[in-house]
Design a protein that fits this description.
The complex is a heterodimer of chains A (about 260) and B (about 600).
Chain A lengths: L1 H6 L4 E4 L2 E4 L6 H7 L23 E4 L2 E4 L10 E3 L3 H17 L14 H8 L16 E2 L5 E4 L8 H9 L5 E4 L6 E4 L26 E3 L12 H4 L6 H6 L7 H7 L1
Parallel strand pairs in A: 1-5
Antiparallel strand pairs in A: 1-2, 3-4, 3-5, 6-7, 7-10, 8-9
Chain B lengths: L3 H14 L7 H12 L4 H11 L3 H10 L11 E6 L2 H5 L2 H12 L12 E6 L11 E3 L2 E3 L4 H12 L18 E3 L12 H21 L11 H10 L6 E6 L8 H8 L1 H15 L3 E6 L7 H13 L16 E6 L9 H8 L23 E5 H13 L1 H5 L9 E8 L5 E6 L4 H8 L4 E6 L5 E4 L17 E6 L4 H15 L5 H18 L5 H17 L3 H5 L2 H9 L1 H5 L13 H4 L1 H7 L13
Parallel strand pairs in B: 1-2, 5-11, 6-7, 6-9, 7-8, 10-14
Antiparallel strand pairs in B: 1-3, 3-4, 10-11, 12-13, 12-14
Helix pairs in contact in B: 1-2, 3-4, 6-7, 8-9, 8-11, 8-14, 10-11, 11-14, 17-18, 17-21, 18-19, 19-21
Classes of the chains: A alpha+beta (about 260), B alpha/beta (about 600).
Chain lengths: ~260, ~600
C-alpha cells in the first residue's frame, strides 16, 4: 500500500487498483477513457456536457456510488469499476432499457452501430429478463431526410443536448414524467418535418440507438463490418474517447458507398 | 390563429402579472388552467409565442405535472387522495359511489364536459381523510352523504365558491404541543432577537444549536447557511420547501395554517444571516387553500416593516417573500427538483455538486430549508443555541413534530423532544393493536412490533414526520403495493433505474395481488431493490423499494398467502387477452374462455 500512496501524486487516482492520471476539471469517465480504461456508458458523448441519466457508468468511489460521467476526478480517490457486482447491476439496467422500448435488432438499420446493442453483447446480456412493456409509440416519417422511430428511444437526451448546445436549435425535448417520458419535437404540429432540423444538424446523427436515422441509407455498410461488429465496445476505448458526431449529408454517403 | 384574439383577452392579464417571464411558467400554467379549465396544445403554442419559449419547452413543463391537463377534464376536476390512510378510511367505496352517481369512468370527463373524477397521490389530510380535491381545493372528512351532496352541487353547476364553507374546513388536530406548537411569540420578536445578535452572532448560535434539517435528510442547517453566506456572488435566495408530499405527512400544513409567522420570520432570519434579498416559498398545489391567508400574512409583515426595505430599521436589510405553487409532483420536494420547478421547468433533480448553496435558484447561492426547520430557527434566535441544544439527544437536538395517522384513536400532530420511543407515541395517540408503523412515509422505514422500542432520532429512526399506524386487521402487502404504485406514478423519469424499475416493481406487486406471483417474483422484488437503491439519481429512486423490501422481510406471510404454488406463472393472462374478442362477439359462455392457469 505504501508505494501506492506515494504514487498518488496530486493528479492521479485509481480505478480497480490501476493508477490513472487526470487533468483538473476532468470527470472520472473522461479521465478513464483518456487513459484507455473502459467504463460502460450510454448517455455520455465526448462532444457534449455530462448528463448522468442512463446510470450505466455508475462506479463506486471511496465506497459510495456515483456516476463516473458527472463526478469530477479528484486526487487519490479509489474507484471500483469492473466488478461483478457493478456489471450485474449494469446488465439489469440494460434489460430495463430493452423492455421499456421496442428494440428488434434484426430489423434495425442501426444494428452493429448501436451502442445499446453493443453494451448488451459486451456485458453478456442474454435475455431481456423482465416483462416487455410493449409501449405504443408513434413513428414520425414526416421529415424529408430524417426518420424518427421513438420505439427505439432510450431517453438519453443526446439529441436534445446536441440540438440545443451544438446546433443552437432546440428541436428535441424530453416531455412527460416517469414511464410516460418521451421525446417531443419543437414544431407547430409536433412533427419532425415541421421542425427546423436539417440533415446536417449534429442532432440528426448523435442518436446512440436507431431512433433517429438518416433516410435513404439502407445498410450502406454491410452488417458484419460496422463499428461494433469488429470488436466488443469495451475494446474500443480510443474510439469512445475521441469520436465526433458525424455530419454526413445523406447524398454524399450514398454516393460514396 | 382564429381563436387567438379570444385567448389573448383572457390570458394577457395573467401574462402581464407575471411580466411574460419564462421562469414563471409553472405559475402561469396554473393560472391559465384556472381560466380555461385545461391547457390544450393550442394554448401551449400561444403561451410559447408570448413567452418567447419553444413550444416543446412549454409542453415539457405542462406534461410533467399531474395537475396540468392537456385535455378537457371538466369544470369540476375531482381528485380522491389515494394514500394508504385514505384507503383504510374507505376512499375506494366513496370513489366508486361518486363514479356511479355521476355515471363516469375514472379519469374521463362526462359527456357534457362538466366533471371528471380520478385518484391522486396523498393530499396531506391523513388525520382527517378520506380527502378529495375539487379544482385543487381540499375537502377532508368525506362521507357517502357528502359524496351525494357534492354530486348534486356538480350536477346543478353550483360554483365552487358557493359550496358550503364547512366542507373546506381543515382541522389542526394538535394533540401534543411542546416548544414549537406551544409557542406564543409576538410578531417580529424572533426577527428582532436575531438582529440583536448580529449576523455573525446568529450564525454562531445556529452552530451551537446543532439544528438539523427537518425534511428528512438531517443536514446541519448552520453549515448550509454558512456555505451560502460564503459563496461568491451578490444575489442570494432563501427557499422554503413547503412541498410536503411524503405520504402521511401533514405537519407543514398545520404550521402554515396556524404558525405562518414563525415560518416567514425564519425565512427573514435566514436572509439576514446569509445576506439574501429574496425568499421563495414553494407551496404544494394540494395546499392551494392556504394561499390567500399566507398572502395576507405577508402583507401584514410588509406593513409592520418586517418585510421590504430596511427591515426592522436595519439599513440595507432588504428582503421580500414570494409564494410559488406546485402542481402535483412529489419529486419537487427534492431541493434541486424544487428549484427547477421554481424556474418554470419540469421538476427533475439536478446533478449535484454543485449544491444549491453554491448554485441554486437562477444558479445563485440558495438556502433551501424545510418549513419546520425555519420555525425552529426562531426558537434559536430568541432563546439561544445553548438552550436549544439542551433539548433532545446529542445528535438530534430540539423537538420534532410527528404527523400521526392510521389506526389510532387520536390522529393529529404530536410534538416531542427527539429521542421519544415509538411505543410512547403509540400509547399517547391511542393505538392499542398496532402491528406496524411506517415512519417517514412511503420512502421511510416499516417497523414491526418488536422494533417499537426504538427512538425517533437521526441516529436511530430518522423521520421527516410521517407516522402511519397499521392495526392487526391490516394487510401489509396492500400497504407496500399502495406505495409501489405511488413511486411508479411519481418517478420523474430522468434516470433509468427509477424510471423503469419503479414500474417493474409496481407490476410485480400487482401480479402477486392477482394470485399469479410465485417465489420467483419475491426474488425479483429484492433484485430490483438492489439496483434502485444504489443506482438511482436521487432520493426518490433510492428509497422507492424500501417499503417493499421491509415488508417482504418483516411481513412475509402477507405475501406468501398470495403466491401460486407453482415455480412460475407467466404475467401474460391468455384468457384476459381475449376479453376484447368476447366483447366484439357478444359471447361470454364457458366455451368462450380458456382454462384458467394451473
Amino acid at each position: 500500500m505504501s508505494d501506492m500512496n506515494s504514487a498518488t501524486s496530486a493528479n492521479t487516482f485509481s480505478i480497480d487498483g490501476q493508477r490513472i492520471a487526470f487533468e483538473s476539471g476532468q470527470t472520472i469517465l473522461q479521465a478513464a477513457l483518456a487513459a484507455g480504461v473502459y467504463i460502460p456508458h450510454l448517455c455520455h458523448h465526448p462532444e457534449l456536457k455530462p448528463h448522468g441519466s442512463c446510470k450505466l457508468c455508475t462506479v463506486v468511489v471511496n465506497g459510495r456510488n456515483g456516476s463516473a460521467c458527472t463526478q469530477k476526478a479528484t486526487p487519490g480517490i479509489e474507484v471500483e469499476n469492473n466488478t461483478p457486482a457493478l456489471n450485474d447491476r449494469r446488465r439489469v439496467l440494460l434489460q430495463m432499457l430493452f423492455v421499456e422500448g421496442n428494440h428488434f435488432c434484426p430489423g434495425c438499420e442501426k444494428s452493429g452501430n448501436c451502442q445499446l446493442q453493443a453494451l448488451a453483447y459486451d456485458l453478456e446480456m442474454l435475455a431481456p429478463h423482465f416483462r416487455h412493456a410493449f409501449p405504443a409509440r408513434p413513428v414520425d416519417a414526416s421529415h424529408p431526410d430524417v426518420w424518427l422511430d421513438l420505439n427505439r428511444c432510450v431517453m438519453c437526451e443526446l439529441c436534445v443536448r446536441a440540438s440545443r448546445d451544438l446546433d443552437g436549435k432546440n428541436v428535441f425535448m424530453l416531455a412527460g414524467r416517469g414511464a410516460e417520458s418521451r421525446v417531443v419535437i419543437n414544431s407547430p404540429s409536433g412533427l419532425l418535418g415541421d421542425s427546423t432540423l436539417t440533415i446536417d444538424d449534429r442532432a440528426a446523427h448523435v442518436c446512440p440507438v436507431g431512433a433517429i436515422l438518416p433516410k435513404r441509407v439502407g445498410y450502406a455498410v454491410p452488417i458484419g463490418e460496422r463499428q461494433f461488429d469488429a470488436e466488443p465496445i469495451s475494446h474500443q476505448v480510443d474510439y469512445l474517447a475521441h469520436r465526433h458526431i458525424p455530419i454526413v449529408p445523406v447524398a454524399t454517403q450514398t454516393e460514396n458507398s | 390563429m382564429s381563436v387567438a384574439p379570444e385567448l389573448s383577452s383572457r390570458l394577457e392579464p395573467i401574462l402581464q402579472r407575471h411580466q411574460w417571464r419564462p421562469d414563471r411558467l409553472v405559475q402561469i400554467l396554473r393560472e391559465v388552467q384556472d381560466e380555461l379549465d385545461y391547457l390544450s396544445d393550442e394554448t401551449v403554442l400561444y403561451l410559447a409565442g408570448r413567452l418567447q419559449m419553444s413550444r416543446a419547452q412549454v409542453q415539457s413543463t405542462r406534461d410533467f405535472y399531474a395537475f396540468f391537463y392537456k385535455e378537457n377534464r371538466g369544470k369540476y376536476r375531482i381528485l380522491f387522495s389515494d394514500n394508504i390512510t385514505d384507503r383504510m378510511a374507505g376512499n375506494q367505496a366513496l370513489f366508486e359511489h361518486m363514479l356511479k352517481r355521476l355515471k363516469l369512468e375514472p379519469g374521463k370527463v362526462s359527456a357534457d364536459g362538466l366533471v371528471s373524477v380520478d385518484y391522486t397521490s396523498c393530499t396531506g389530510m391523513c388525520d382527517q381523510g378520506p380527502a378529495i380535491l375539487v379544482n385543487n381545493r381540499a375537502i377532508p372528512r368525506m362521507t357517502p352523504r357528502r359524496v351525494d351532496e357534492i354530486c348534486d352541487l356538480v350536477r346543478n353547476a353550483v360554483p365552487l365558491a358557493q359550496w358550503p364553507a364547512e366542507y373546506f374546513k381543515v382541522e389542526d388536530n394538535i394533540e401534543r404541543a411542546d416548544v414549537l406548537l406551544g409557542s406564543k411569540v409576538e410578531a417580529g420578536a424572533a426577527i428582532n432577537a436575531a438582529i440583536a445578535r448580529g449576523r455573525d452572532g446568529m450564525l454562531a448560535e445556529m452552530k451551537i444549536s446543532n439544528l438539523r434539517g427537518r425534511g428528512g435528510a438531517g443536514f446541519t442547517t448552520a453549515v448550509k447557511w454558512e456555505a451560502c453566506r460564503n459563496a461568491p456572488g451578490v444575489e442570494r435566495y432563501i427557499v422554503c420547501n413547503a412541498d410536503e408530499g411524503e405520504p402521511g405527512t401533514f405537519k407543514d400544513r398545520v404550521l402554515l395554517q396556524s404558525y405562518a409567522g414563525l415560518v416567514f420570520e425564519g425565512m427573514v432570519i435566514a436572509a439576514y444571516t446569509v445576506g439574501a434579498q429574496l425568499g421563495l416559498l414553494y407551496l404544494r398545489g394540494e395546499y392551494l387553500y392556504l394561499l390567500p391567508q399566507l398572502e395576507a400574512y405577508l402583507d401584514g409583515m410588509r406593513a409592520a416593516k418586517l418585510l421590504g426595505k430596511n427591515i426592522a430599521g436595519v439599513p440595507g436589510f432588504d428582503f421580500d417573500i414570494e409564494i410559488h405553487l406546485g402542481a402535483g409532483a412529489y419529486i419537487c420536494g427534492e431541493e434541486t427538483a424544487l428549484i427547477e420547478s421554481l424556474e418554470g421547468k419540469a421538476g427533475k433533480p439536478r446533478v449535484r455538486p454543485p449544491f444549491p448553496v453554491i448554485s441554486g435558484y437562477m444558479n445563485k447561492p440558495t438556502v433551501v430549508n424545510n418549513v419546520e426547520t425555519l420555525c425552529k430557527t426562531t426558537e434559536i434566535a430568541i432563546q439561544g443555541g445553548a438552550w436549544y441544544e439542551a433539548i433532545g439527544t446529542k445528535q438530534s437536538t430540539g423537538t420534532k413534530i410527528i404527523s400521526v395517522s392510521g389506526d389510532c384513536e387520536r390522529p393529529g400532530l404530536y410534538e416531542y423532544a427527539f429521542g421519544v420511543r415509538i411505543s410512547q407515541v403509540l400509547e399517547d395517540c391511542g393505538a392499542h393493536d398496532a402491528i406496524a408503523v411506517q415512519v417517514s412515509g412511503a420512502s421511510g422505514v416499516c417497523l414491526s412490533e418488536r422494533e417499537f422500542g426504538r427512538r425517533i432520532a437521526f441516529e436511530d429512526v430518522p423521520t421527516a414526520g410521517s407516522f402511519m399506524i397499521f392495526g392487526k386487521q391490516r394487510d401489509m402487502f396492500e400497504v407496500a403495493r399502495n406505495f409501489a404504485h405511488f413511486f411508479a406514478h411519481e418517478s420523474c423519469g430522468f434516470c433509468t433505474p427509477c424510471r423503469v424499475g419503479t414500474t417493474l416493481m409496481q407490476d410485480i406487486m400487482d401480479k402477486i395481488a392477482e394470485g399469479r406471483g410465485t417465489q420467483y417474483e419475491m426474488n425479483e422484488l429484492l433484485r430490483l431493490q438492489q439496483v434502485l437503491k444504489p443506482g438511482s439519481h436521487c432520493g426518490l429512486g433510492q428509497t422507492a423499494g424500501n417499503a417493499v423490501a421491509d415488508t417482504v422481510q418483516k411481513f412475509r406471510p402477507a405475501y406468501e398467502r398470495r403466491l401460486a404454488e407453482t415455480d412460475f406463472v407467466p404475467a401474460f393472462d391468455l384468457d384476459a387477452a381475449l376479453t376484447r374478442a368476447r366483447e366484439l362477439s357478444g359471447r361470454d359462455d364457458a366455451a368462450a374462455h380458456l382454462g384458467v392457469e394451473a
